[in-house]
Design goal:
This protein is an alpha/beta fold and 501 residues long. It folds into three domains: 103 residues, ATPase, nucleotide binding domain (Nucleotidyltransferase, domain 5); 162 residues, Exopolyphosphatase. Domain 2 (Nucleotidyltransferase, domain 5, 2-Layer Sandwich), CATH 3.30.420.150; 141 residues, Hypothetical protein af1432 (Orthogonal Bundle). The strands form three sheets. Strands 8-7-6-9-11-10 form a six-stranded mixed β-sheet, with helices on both faces. Strands 3-2-1-4-5 form a five-stranded mixed β-sheet, sandwiched between helices. Helices cover 47% and strands 17% of the residues. The chain is built from 19 helices and 14 strands. A hairpin with a 7-residue loop joins strand 12 and strand 13. The protein starts with 5 loop residues before the first strand and ends with a strand.
Length: 501
């Protein structure tokens, strides 16, 4: 990306939606604008884990305002990510489909591990570089992330389903606060966070940092009350806990530095932080300037640079762990992407989108045999399961699921993928992958430059594959597999037309 490029990150949190805009300045991103709206989607999940219509509407209204501000941005300059509430919501697709259209950019639901990685990126990029071992804590509305890292590298990451919105609603219902409620909330938080003890014990880090809303709100209160000017101490946290208990109700809490948008979720956040201080033996917590949205901005830069795109590193790591035949994977990847290029060489299409679509196809090709160590005959099914359940650094949930569906569809009947085939780009990616698998079935290098693929009319759902004259005689098995492939596509109302030239 060129110096001076504008970048934007949207964080769809359980309590607030945030928009961060910055300018690229010689490798650093300088903030130019920051917008925050308290949406409280985390309170909008009903007993069946569906977002209520009111909660969705609050989110859409906010996204409409953000979308207006981002109307002049390009697709590669914006990324929107959603966290725990939308990870949980059973009807999330309803919200995401309309929300993406309103915003004007796709919204990625990210896993807890990926959220933790991006939080660390945001925190570490805004800290002085040193060799200190860092513990980073982020208490969100419905999840808490813990990360161990050094310099810019996140080494251990975890996400726990405990957050300020959820804990405030469950243990401080209707805003009522007492000692018994605090004890229950802290015990419950420790029960969820207890497994963090082995990994995040106090001898594993030098300095503890706290990121985002809850830690920032607590620090503001303690600073305004004269307890600190640099850190959150255990003594200060206990003083705040006692103040909340004495008030008996959140509406009666009178504290300097308390912002109204944090009032309703303060007790839950304090109880979780108290639990973490006790569990991990934290003496002081340093508030950090960076957070998830800064991590998303710097990840946009990394995605633009293919050599440091963390997603490519994740694919290589997974391929290595499962002992994939690298020669065959590269062979399939090269041919599949070459076919895809033949049908997407129109200048009218967005080059950034085409590049991302090609990357996804190449990654699926690199991992198409990942399930072979489990079963040869059903390796596509096992590979799909692995990709749907692996925490792939850098990938949104939708991105890893797309890889999973491509791997599943590389062979066999296509009926199993009928819902996905409504997506024209996915269909084209899948077709190119299946063609590559056919042409490379003998695991030999094959010259395919004279084989031409075209889709003259997408609406008519016709693929045209033009083969050199005499090719079917020279490669009878491949020709047979192509005829079988034509039959398979016919069953899902696509036509593969085989032509000689």
């Amino acid at each position: 990306m060129q110096n001076g490029t504008r970048l934007a990150a949207i964080d769809l949190g359980s309590n607030s939606f945030r928009l961060e805009i910055g300018n690229l300045d010689y490798g650093q991103i300088q903030r130019t604008e920051y917008l925050k709206e308290t949406v409280r989607q985390g309170n909008g999940l009903d007993h069946e884990r569906n977002l209520t219509q009111e909660a969705m509407q609050r989110g859409w209204d906010c996204l409409a305002r953000f979308g207006e501000r981002l109307s002049s941005f390009k697709s590669n300059e914006v990324r929107a990510v959603a966290t725990q509430t939308l990870r949980e919501a059973r009807n999330r697709e309803s919200f995401l489909t309309r929300g993406s259209a309103i915003l004007g950019f796709p919204i990625d639901v990210i896993s807890g591990q990926e959220e933790a990685r991006l939080i660390y990126q945001g925190v570490s990029r805004l800290l002085p570089q040193s060799d200190e071992k860092r513990l980073v804590i982020d208490i969100g509305g419905r999840s808490t992330e813990l990360v161990l890292g050094q310099q810019l590298n996140a080494n251990k990451m975890a996400s726990y389903r405990v957050g300020s919105v959820a804990w405030s609603a469950k243990y401080f219902a209707n805003g009522e606060i007492d000692e018994a409620s605090f004890i229950k909330a802290e015990i419950a938080a420790k029960a969820v966070l207890d497994e963090s003890l082995n990994t995040y014990r106090c001898d594993a880090w030098d300095i503890a940092y706290g990121s985002s809303g809850t830690v920032g709100a607590i620090f503001d209160i303690l600073e305004a009350s004269g307890w600190t000017d640099t850190t959150i101490s255990y003594a200060g946290l206990q003083w705040l806990r006692e103040k909340l208990i004495k008030a008996q109700h959140i509406d009666r809490v009178k504290l300097a530095g308390l912002k109204e948008d944090r009032r309703a979720v303060l007790a839950g956040g304090v109880s979780i932080l108290c639990a973490l201080f006790g569990l991990l033996k934290i003496d002081t917590l340093q508030p950090a300037e960076g957070a998830l949205r800064q991590g998303v901005l710097y990840d946009l830069l990394d995605r633009d640079n293919g050599e440091i795109d963390v997603r490519s590193a994740s694919i290589k790591r997974l391929a290595n762990n499962f002992g994939i035949d690298a020669s065959q994977a590269n062979r399939i990847s090269k041919i599949a992407s070459a076919f895809f290029a033949q049908i997407h060489n129109k200048p009218a299409r967005d080059a950034y989108e085409i590049a991302n679509e090609t990357k996804a196809l190449e990654w699926a090709a690199q991992l198409h045999e990942i399930g072979c160590q489990i079963s040869h005959s059903d390796h596509h099914k096992h590979g799909a399961y692995i990709l749907d359940n692996a925490d792939l650094a850098g990938f949104a949930v939708s991105e890893s699921h797309r890889l999973s569906m491509l791997v599943l569809g590389q062979r066999g009947k296509l009926k199993k993928l009928e819902p996905e085939l409504e997506d024209i780009i996915f269909t084209q990616q899948l077709f190119c992958l299946r063609l590559a698998v056919i042409f490379c079935h003998a695991r030999n290098d094959l010259e395919t430059s004279r084989i031409k693929l075209s889709i003259p009319n997408i609406e008519n759902q016709h693929f045209f594959l033009t083969l050199p004259l005499g090719w079917a005689i020279e490669f009878p098995q491949s020709a047979h597999l192509l005829r079988e492939e034509a039959i398979a596509w016919k069953k899902v109302n696509w036509n593969l037309n085989l032509l000689d030239c």
